[in-house]
Amino acid sequence: MKELKLFIQEQSNELAMRLLEEMLAGNAVAVANPHWPKRFTETIVEVIDPTVVVIDKVAARRVANTDVPEHSSLVATTSGTSGLPKGICHSWANLEASAKASLSYLGANKGEGLWINALPINHVGGFTTITKSYFANHRLETLGSFDYATFDEIARRSDAPVFTSLVKANLSKLDLSVFEKILLGAGTPPSKRPVNAVVTYGLTETGSGCVYDGVALLDVVIQVVEGEVLLKGPMIAQSYRNGTPLTDTNGFFHTGDSGSLGDDGLLSVTGRISEVINTGGEKVAPNTVEEVINEATDLPEYAIFGCRDEEFGEVVAVAIAHHEESRITLESLQQIVAEKLPRYCIPRRLFAVDTLPKTDLGKVQRKRLTEIFSTAR
What we know:
Helix content: 10-25%
CATH superfamily of the largest domain: ANL, N-terminal domain
Number of helices: 9
């Protein structure tokens, strides 16, 4: 029977190479963060359902509840922003297709490059730096966390082109000119987008980004049906952990994201359908409001979300981290939005927060904001 090995340990180059070796040997792998709370880790173990658990290099066998799908090389877990995480089985062919399509778009020459990664490899965005570097025959530096000085030092001393994946919060702390290309996982691109940044769109189920700058990568097909983005391609995961397929009978994965295709064929994603704010019968995509605010301001950390309201059902609200430093008022944000969007898109409430609730990959948990502030005034 195929082995599925779950590694619960600090991420490092050593762990990255071990994961690669296991997959090349025909096993499946999964990764969990050793700093997660015990109860959440137990949940993840149940979701992944491994046959072996490796904690700090000590392996223990486990009886899995379900046979490991023979096609699987990686079992990745979704971020859980819309409920409990799900286990997603990627085959080696899925990972290869994802890596090669990405490398082709980036113009990354084989054997001439360095990938630096500090994104968590328990998520597919961080994990696929391992497979990208492998298929490109590039060197890989996997850091345990974002130590910016180390990150910068490694990039500067490289003689080869340097590639990396970042989240928006990292941009302001690095000299971005030293990187050849930056893959930027961003639902809403930053207002000051670096010229060498590629805005990616994808999900755990699609093996990380499969649409770059609105353009479908090699062999990817995009459809928008009744406002929902559907994706098809060789990098789409073959099944959930229990073996059930992810795609419909035509091979399309239904993302749960709302979006549209422009006249130029570029995909524009406006956010999770489940995060759409229904205010007085009108529907507002949070990303649409954020794009307008980003054009006019340079707020470092904020989020638009829906706040429950007795009169309108929901109203548009904004949560701003370190609000006292930004010195922006609700009235000024209202004026900015009113100039570009209909009246129902205007934020009606502003909340100052120390930090925004996020997943460990840096995605803002809008539903959590709704839960926290819906009873506040």
